[in-house]
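Handoff note, outgoing to incoming analyst
You'll be picking up this chain. Sequence as last confirmed:
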Amino acid sequence: QVQLVESGGGLVQAGGSLRLSCAASGSIFSINAMGWYRQAPGKQREAVAVITNGGSTNYADSVKGRFTISRDNAKNTVYLQMNSLKPGDTAVYYCYADILRYSGYDAISYWGKGTLVTVSS
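Most recent structure output, in case you need it:
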């Protein structure tokens, strides 16, 4: 009943920019944290950026100063603005959201299908 759909991935030259979007839809009471994770070939999935319902943010050290996460609560959408992209940023990026289906229930983690970001040198 709940799904996350990412968009905005693609191929970009080093130094370029991309903006990822992820919209949550379905039966949703509220959304706590939302964020972006990524997994590169041969590496573990890692958290890139997370934003709480109140707007507090956390970034991986490798993307600080280059990436900016934001959200539109009215649209249940989270964004990731990626600037000064490097080849090391190449990965499948997954949208993440902690969603409460009903008031007072524990939040459940939902994941998008992922969108591929390729940064060429």
